Structure formats: C-alpha cells, structure tokens
Amino acid sequence: MSHDPASDQITAYLDWYFDQHPVHADGLGAPGYGDRLGDFSAAAFDSRDRDAAGWLARFEAEPAGIDRDLVVSALRGALLMAGWPAWRRDPSVYLSPVFAGLLLPFLHRLRPEPELVDGALARLAEVPEVLASCRANLDPALSAPRLVRRALRQAAAGPAFLRDSLPAEVHDPALRAMLVDATVPAVQAFEETVEFLTDFAERATGDWRMGETLYSGLLTQRELLSYGAGELHRRGIAAWDELDAQMQELAPRVPGGSADWRATMATLQDDHPPTLQAMRAEYEAETARARAFLAEHELVTFAEGEKCRVVPAPAFQRPILAVASYLVPPALTRSRIGHFFVPYTPDGATEEQITQRLRTNARAQLPTIAVHEAYPGHHWQLSWAAGASPAVRAVHRSSYFAEGWALYAEGMMREQGYFTDPAHELAHLDARIFRAARIVVDTALHCGDMDPTQAEEFMATHASLSPGTVKAEVDRYCAWPTQAPSYLTGCLEIEQLRAQWPGELRDFHNTLAGSGCLPLGLARRALAGDS
C-alpha cells in the first residue's frame, strides 16, 4: 500500500488547527480539547496568522486535490481576514467561544457528566483571562459602535447564563454546586466586560464596512466563486425581481390573498402559535412530518442513529439572532444527534416583542423553516456527511454550500409536492425572496452603497420581517460580511448541478451532500468523482 504524504500533511495541519481552536475541536468531537478555551492574547492571534501563512506555502507546493484545495481556500480566506482583524474590532470573537465552549459539551454529552463538569470548571477558570484579552485587544479606532453594542447585548446575557442556564445542564446536585461556586469569578469578569463595552461603545469610531476589494477576494479565493461583489449584487437584484413576479402570481391563490404578496403574507402571519412554547411544539411536529415525507418518497438515505432535537435557542444566542438556527452533530464521533434551535426572544422581552417573533414564525412559515433547518436541510445533510466525508471537511465548511443546500432543500420539497397549501408555497417563496434581499443588502452595505438605515428600510419593504427582526438582521450583516448572500447563491449553484445530474434524485442528494460542505467549485468536482 503506497504512502500518501498529502494525507500526512493534512493530519499535521489538523493537529495544529485543533490546538489553536480547542472549542471548535471539542465541538467536532476531537478528544482531548474539552478543558480549554484557548489563547486570545494579541501575541497568539499574530502567531496564528504567521503559522497560517506557513501552512499555506506548504499546501500550495502540493499537487491539487479536493482536500488540499479546501485547506488552501480556507487559509487564503483566513489570511485575507488577517488584514481586517476581527479580534481588534468585534467583542463577539471572545464572547462566542466562551458561551459555546461551556454549553455545547452538555448538549452533545459525549462524556460522563463528571468529566463534562471537570471540563467546564477548567474552562470557567479561563474566562477572566479571555475577557481580559477582549478588553485589552479591542481598538476604538477599528471597532464599530454598532458591532460593539451588538456584542454588549450578548455579554449582558453572560451572568444569567453562568448563574442559571449552565448549572441547569448538570443533573448531579453535588456537581452542580461545584459548578455554581466556580462561576463566581467568571460572572465578575462578564460584569466588568459589560461595563467596559458600555463605555467602549461611546469611544469606538471604527467602521464595519470591509469594502469591495476584500469582499470580492473572499468570494473568489475562499468560496471559489467565479465572480465578485458587483456581479453578486446584480444577481441578487435579478433574483428578487424574478421571485417578486412569481409571488404576485401565486398570492391570489391564497384564500383572501391578492397580487400584493406582502399584504397577503402579513395576513398569514396573523395565524401563529400562541406562545413561544407552542411554537417549539409546532416546529417539532413539522420536523417529524418532513422526515416522514422524505422516507415515504425515498428522496434520501438517512444516517444510522440520526436524530434532530427541536429545542429553544440557548439564552446567550437570543439577543443576537432572531431566526431559527441549527447545531450540527459532532462530526468526528459516532453521534448523529443535531439540535434545531427555535428562535425564542431574549429574557425580558415585552409582549409586543414576543408577538412579533411569533408572527415571523407563523403557521404558514413553519413547514419551510423546518425543512431548511432539519429535513432534508441542515440536519439531514450534516448528519449524512459526518460519516461520509474526511475529517478536514468537517473542520472547514463553506456557508455557501451549507446554507445553499438548506435553501435548495426547500425548493426541492416544493417540487416533490410537500407544500400542498398555497399559503405554505407562498411562505416558501417569501423565505427565498428574503434571501435575495439579503444578497442585495449585504453587498451594498459592505461596498458603501447603503447605510444601515437604508438597509433596514430595504429589508422591511422587500421581505416579510418584523421591525425587531429587521434590525437584528442588519446588525448580523454588518458583523458577518459575505455570509448572508450564501443562501440563495449556493442554492442556485446546487440547482445547476442537479440539472446536469444524469441519475436518480436520491443518488444526487446522497452523493453531493455526502461530499461535505465544500466551496461550490470543489463541490462540482466532488460530484464528478474527483478526489
């Protein structure tokens, strides 16, 4: 049997990557990383950038191959972003790993509870140092006030998360008491950071816009698309116009509807679950219905032992994300259990805010959202890929494939007759036109053609979103450039691949989804059988 030097290099690279990103490694199920949050000092960020440049040079010297090219694209993207250092701009770089590192092990439960608590205790001890790095590293000349205030809302959820939510994950009373005692210094660090960020937001003068050059570089070098920001913006406008015409034709078929699809959607949103708890229960029922439809019509093959749990979004996530989301199974383990996070409002939300959240999760919209997050969207694709693709493809996942797949799944289910009610069909197209509006707004924001007020107005008039959701969405685009366009962009690319597939639909789904969440240029090669 011949020896593969490229495989050895990827193994060495993953060892380095896991050491530098222990929360991500632990979330994937790599053993030995459950007791660290990592080094967030300025020296560590600089060292990682230098190491990444060295790894890129080594991989560029190797022959082409999908896994090698995946690592090259990821490293090129990371080095592009090194010139726009998020660790000096955005407090969430420090906050998100703390929350994820403490909660995710308890959601996945890959180890006995005493070991999980030991890991949490070790990570809690690191929280003050991580948050001290946050306060030391942020640069007021680079940090945008809008992003600081977004992160401030997340930081403000920290003390309650540590005091209440995290201990509630521990079943053993003695272990729970140990954990509660260990949270005290971390709570104090969060309180200091909230005070710091409150003042820092007033001093920050930076900009969140990355500009067209960097934006286009990420599209072409990291995502391996053949076009940049300008062409992506034009495609978003064209897609929105096409969907608008379809919705004008469909909306009158909804009882009480008219060619004004926005008004029709507003009426449909009057019929929503009565409470957040009822919303979760109805999402759970829709998730089960979608899975049964897939099995009945033999559209996919299910991974052994897969299960999708439908649960409230974690408390720390609620202040910064207003829509449903998904937590992937730990791909480097045998577990195939994923979590569909239902978008609860933050603690302390008013009745009006809760009602608006329920309206944007109306009964007409539940089927397409459940398809997107669970079956055959994120949960099915990622649980299937976990056992079918190499480890490096679990580490580096392209949002343009992952989100493109989930939106593709919605359209495919419509074609297969899943949305039998015109209201469900209209809500599906509304979800799709929302993604077209995201392309327009995200590109315009970061290329300097829109300010946030204009972006909020555009989203409010071009999609069926509540005012609170609109603001949260635009905050997200400012903080996470290039991600919002990934949904419809990836979907259209995947639909092209399907049109060229000569075989059965289930084989297309199993083959493409099983290749991992590759940048779309690499996904095309994987579908063609390249290695």
Q: How would you classify the helix and strand content by structural class?
A: mainly alpha
> How many helical stretches?
24
| Order of strands in the sheet with most strands | 1-3-2
The biggest sheet, with number of strands, parallel, antiparallel or mixed sense and barrel status, is:
3 strands, mixed
**Uncertain stretches of 5 or more adjacent residues:** none
The end-to-end span amounts to: 18 Å
Give Rg in angstroms: 22 Å
Could you give the order of the helices and strands? HHHHHHHHHHHHHEEEHHHHHHHHHHH
Q: Can you tell me the overall shape?
A: globular
Beta-strand content bin = under 5%
Number of domains: 2
Helical content (DSSP H or I, runs of 4+): 55-70%
Query: What is the averaged pLDDT score?
Result: 96
Question: Which characteristics define this entry?
Answer:
2 domains; mainly alpha; single chain; 24 helices; 531 residues; three-stranded mixed beta sheet
